[in-house]
Design a protein that fits this description.
Mean pLDDT of chain B: 88
Helix content of chain B: 55-70%
Strand order of the largest sheet of chain A: 1-2
Structural class of chain B: mainly alpha
Strand content of chain B: under 5%
Protein name (chain B): Tripartite tricarboxylate transporter TctB family protein
Largest sheet of chain A: 2 strands, antiparallel
Transmembrane segments (chain B): 52-70, 91-112, 132-151
Oligomer: heterodimer
Largest interface: A-B, 72 and 76 residues
Keywords (chain B): Membrane, Transmembrane, Transmembrane helix
Largest sheet of chain B: none
Number of helices of chain A: 23
InterPro entries (chain B): DUF1468
Pfam families (chain B): TctB (PF07331)
Number of domains of chain B: 2
Shape of chain B: flat
Low-confidence stretches of chain A: none
Chain lengths: 539, 176
């Protein structure tokens, strides 16, 4: 109770209240515009938040992170275009509901489910905090190194079908982070004797390039989409009542969201996928999924909104971000010399509780805002794409240039913008680069200090948590190898189902040859060669 | 390559080979420079060597990039790949617009450049609607007011502001 009160005390400031308001309303707006995700907005706003108090800056960013998915549901339901990437599953059941004239019901259900997911996860984590505060100090350098390694492996393996390129891009991030003056031996690494590279490649410059500028280029290069929006009539409160009729689906989906959110690299997509599959399997009408099922909509929206609060756990407790948005937030902590990790939980618990309370209040504010302003809000969906691209381009300048007033930073950001554009065109993942940079830096520092007192390799995992993490790494790798092998097997089966023999021409010729050379083959050849010249081969 | 394998590929196929080739070539080139660009320090443990992490990163880039290239559904560059490459080059125009904006702000000033740049770029993108052009200019003013005037984001005063008379000079440098 004392903790709660001290947390509230931290929040009871006019600038925090304004930050909450700006974050929540801004997040909903940003989410509602297809083409501008929370990553773009957070990347642009990052440098602006450096001059604010940590709690104010983080509240704005958390606000955008937590509320963008509410907004993202609006275009997903009304025009079948997800506002943010994680609202893709919402289109499955949301848009069919709109098509049969139930747009209002779908929106109200999505808001209610999101609200439930958000509040459920915050409450879970507040209750879970004391346990976390006890476990977090058990993490020393070795454990944090292993947790970061586990995080990077999970991020890579989560990109199913693109694991190899995800691993290559994560390695690229690790390498990028090593550029510049190395802090222990003071030797230069990959600076090519250029002064501007001595201080290294700034994470925010890369983030702005890969997320904001690349998105601007992508929108500028593309075409404007024509949208027709259904007019909404009536109130939006019925969703809360409908949600209450599906407590099991909502509860399980929110739990999946919390669990998956806490694991680095896993995030919203896996949580949604698991919740949706669970809801479909246990539903009385599984056939209605994908055709406007209210349970499907609840599962998708509850799971994705339960993730943001949970994603803060590895960041706050261990200093390890699990995905791009929390990686960006980490830089806000660093700028203010607040080092997230076990010490934060031990020494500044009210700060952590204040962040969770901010998320809780935020969810209430967003729900109230949406219930009364959806009719006006849907107009933002109509903003033309290329116009949006121009605006993002101008806003990206604020982000990059205000960092160090450096033109070189802007050139670097533009280069990463073009790289991000190419990656977007090819549907290759961008997130492993950012996490490679952040986690690579953490791994370098922690491995160096962790290895200082290690004599044999086994000493590295002689503590219980280190051993558990090591086993988890082995399990994740084992499961991934198994999945790759199964995929390979299925692929081969699919190939064989179309053909009667091996697909390889060489193998085919070899079998033919062995048949012809076998005794029976020779006999057949002799029979068939009645009308041809007899063979001169000697038996 | 089999249809089944192609259907499992994520995203567009054209351009993949160009990207993979460029990525692997660049990674190999960087890895070949590791001796010159990093140092091996004596009496230092292997894991604490300054060369260790660049080697991990570049090794991973070459290894996984190479495997990705090898596993691509199509390993031959064709006409469509070059067309995709041209689209990547087209984007350089927007990067140049951005750099021009970056270059002009410290000379002419954040407010005037933004107010002119936004409608100009909107015009370039093919919008001829007068209302949209005015909206973009107004948006430019709002962006400058929000970031420079209210949030005090670090954007230096322009060279041109130095020529403004007395109090106006410092007012403009501080706020716009």
């Amino acid at each position: 109770m004392d903790l709660l009160l001290s947390g509230l005390e931290i929040l009871a400031r006019w600038d925090v209240v304004i930050a909450l308001l700006v974050g929540s309303v801004g997040g909903v707006l940003i989410g509602a515009i297809p083409g501008v995700g929370p990553a773009v907005a957070i990347a642009i706003l990052l440098p602006a938040t450096f001059s604010m108090d940590p709690i104010v800056g983080l509240t704005v960013l958390l606000g955008i992170y937590g509320s963008s998915m509410y907004g993202g549901a609006i275009p997903a339901i009304l025009i079948n275009t997800p506002g943010t990437a994680v609202n893709a599953l919402t289109t499955y059941d949301g848009f069919p509901m709109t098509s049969r004239g139930e747009a209002r019901r779908a929106l109200s259900l999505a808001y209610s489910a999101s609200f439930f997911g958000g509040v459920f996860s915050v409450i879970c984590l507040m209750l879970f905090s004391p346990v976390l505060a006890k476990v977090a100090p058990m993490f020393g350098s070795r454990e944090i190194f292993l947790a970061a390694l586990l995080g990077i492996i999970l991020v890579i393996t989560a990109h199913r079908g693109q694991t190899l390129i995800a691993a290559a891009l994560a390695s690229f991030g690790i390498w990028l982070n090593t550029i510049g003056l190395e802090p222990v031996k003071y030797t230069k690494r990959y600076t090519f004797d250029q002064a501007f590279l001595s201080s290294g490649v700034n994470l925010i410059v890369v983030v702005l390039g890969l997320f904001a500028l690349s998105q601007a280029f992508y929108l500028l290069q593309g075409e404007d989409e024509k949208t027709r929006i259904t007019k909404l009539k009536g109130g939006l409160f019925q969703g809360l009542r409908e949600l209450a009729r599906h407590p099991r689906v909502a509860g399980v989906s929110a739990s999946f969201g919390v669990l998956m959110g806490m694991i680095p690299g896993v995030g919203e997509f896996t949580a949604q996928f698991m919740s949706y599959t669970y809801a479909q399997k246990t539903s009385k009408q599984p056939d209605s999924f994908g055709h406007g099922s209210s349970e499907g909509l609840i599962a998708a929206e509850t799971a994705n909104n339960a993730v943001p609060a949970a994603a803060m756990v590895p960041l706050l407790a261990l200093g390890i971000p699990g995905e791009a948005l929390t990686a960006m937030m980490l830089s806000v902590f660093y700028v203010h010399n607040v080092v997230p990790g076990p010490q934060l939980f031990q020494n500044d618990m009210p700060f952590v509780v204040a962040l969770y309370l901010a998320l809780l209040i935020l969810n209430v504010m967003v729900l109230v805002f949406l219930l009364f302003s959806t009719n006006q809000l849907i107009k933002v969906v109509k903003i033309p794409n290329r116009f949006l691209g121009v605006v993002i381009l101008v806003l990206s300048f604020v982000g990059v240039y205000s960092l160090r007033n450096s033109v070189t930073d802007c050139v670097l950001a533009a280069v990463f913008g073009v790289l991000g554009f190419v990656l977007k065109r090819l549907s290759l993942p961008v997130v492993p680069i950012i996490l490679g940079m952040v986690l690579g830096g953490i791994m370098e520092v922690k491995l160096r200090s962790g290895m200082a007192r290690v004599k044999t390799p086994l000493d590295f995992i002689d503590r219980p948590i280190a051993a558990i993490l090591f086993v988890m790494i082995l399990i994740v790798l084992g499961l991934h190898i198994r999945r790759v092998w199964l995929d390979h097997k299925h692929l081969k089966e699919a190939k064989w189902s179309n053909k009667h023999s091996s697909t390889r021409f060489g193998a085919h010729l070899s079998r033919r040859k062995s048949f012809l050379l076998a005794e029976r083959g020779k006999k057949r050849r002799a029979e068939r060669s009645m009308f041809t010249r007899p063979s001169t081969d000697k038996d | 390559m089999d249809n089944e394998e192609l259907s499992r590929h994520i995203g567009r196929r054209s351009g993949q080979i160009l990207f993979a080739l460029a990525f692997v070539a660049l990674s190999a080139l960087l890895l070949s420079q590791i001796g010159a660009e990093t140092k091996w320090v004596k009496r230092t443990k292997f894991f604490a060597q300054p060369r260790f992490w660049p080697a991990v990163g570049l090794g991973g880039m070459v290894l996984f990039g190479g495997l990705h290239l090898w596993r691509l559904p199509r390993r031959k560059i064709d006409r469509l790949d070059w067309r995709e490459g041209m689209i990547w080059l087209q984007v350089l125009e927007y990067a140049l617009w951005f750099m021009a904006y970056v270059w002009l702000v410290p000379l002419v000033g954040y407010l005037p450049v933004t107010v002119v740049f936004l409608p100009l770029m909107v015009w370039r993108m093919g919008y001829r609607d007068k209302r949209l052009l005015w909206v973009s200019a107004g948006l430019g003013v709002c962006i400058v007011l929000l970031f420079k005037t209210f949030l005090n984001v670090k954007i230096p005063g322009a060279v041109l502001y130095e020529y403004l008379p007395g109090a106006m000079r410092s007012f403009f440098i501080l706020n716009f």
